[in-house]
Specification:
Layout (H helix, E strand, L loop, with lengths): L2 H4 E3 L14 H17 L5 H15 L4 E8 L2 E8 L10 E3 L3 H9 L3 E3 L22 E9 L2 E10 L7 H51 L3 H15 L3 H16 L1
Antiparallel strand pairs: 1-5, 2-3, 2-7, 3-4, 5-6, 6-7
Length: about 250
């Protein structure tokens, strides 16, 4: 069979598409999805969410390697894995559209390659993984509210045909965990914004004190804070808080 016939973009499987029958296998799938939903509702930090996803995905499809990439600044960054290269977590970056993983991110569609993955025209070998070669490849996008947040890859060293049920379950996991990644990212952005506003508030108060006590312009007061921060190798917030504390002591 030609390489083009060995791979196929798979349509996402919503939760409703999973056939929940009465067999033991189907009952275990219901249990798995309930476990996923239960764990995701626990408001876990992002690293913990990704570790949980690795565990859930590899329990569905026993694989040789599992990589989870998170979209950061228009690049896919490896953030969790089941492999023998823990040193590349956080370092390996893939551009959207680059390799099979990048293609999945760009098109937001699952892709499976049953054999000869390296011959797929979209395949890319990374220098960070020189000894890794995989025959089969299942890649699923992680999406939150219609926005791409990452990609999960399951890889096999030997040829493997993925069943519709496996693709459906991994796609459903991608849907559930993608929503949780989106939530944790939003909370992180909110926390960062709150911290920035707090720093700005403290700096503004310190500037006001310098302007009043030293009769400086707003720009001159800011530059003084900046120079002190660089000289003392402390953050602007730390310097500003020291000025505010000193001023408060003088007022006593």
């Amino acid at each position: 069979m030609s390489a083009s016939a060995d791979w196929s973009p798979a349509k996402p499987f919503p939760i409703e598409a999973v056939d929940l029958g009465s067999s033991t296998a189907e009952a275990s799938e219901v249990t798995l999805l309930r476990r996923v939903a239960g764990r995701m509702s626990g408001a876990l930090p992002l690293d913990a969410v990704l570790r949980e996803l690795v565990g859930f995905a590899t329990s569905v499809v026993n694989c040789d390697s599992c990589f989870i990439y998170v979209l950061e600044d228009k690049e896919l960054v490896l953030r969790a894995s089941k492999n023998h290269h823990p040193n590349i977590v956080g370092r390996l970056r893939i551009k959207v559209g680059q390799g099979i993983t990048g293609w999945v991110a760009q098109h937001r569609e699952p892709v499976f390659v049953s054999r000869n993955a390296a011959t797929d025209p979209r395949f890319k070998m990374f220098a960070e993984l020189p000894e890794d070669s995989f025959e089969a490849f299942l890649s699923v996008p992680l999406v939150s509210q219609g926005r791409l947040v990452g990609v999960i890859n399951l890889q096999h060293r030997k040829a493997r045909v993925y069943s519709d049920r496996e693709i459906g379950l991994v796609s459903t996991l991608g849907f559930l965990v993608g929503a949780e990644i989106g939530r944790t990212r939003l909370e992180s952005e909110r926390s960062e914004l709150a911290a920035q506003l707090e720093v700005r508030k403290v700096v503004e108060r310190a500037k006001g004190i310098l302007q009043q006590d030293l009769r400086l312009s707003e720009e001159a007061a800011y530059q003084m804070l900046r120079r002190e921060s660089q000289h003392r190798r402390k953050s602007m917030k730390d310097v500003a808080e020291a000025i505010i504390l000193s001023h408060a002591i003088k007022q006593c």
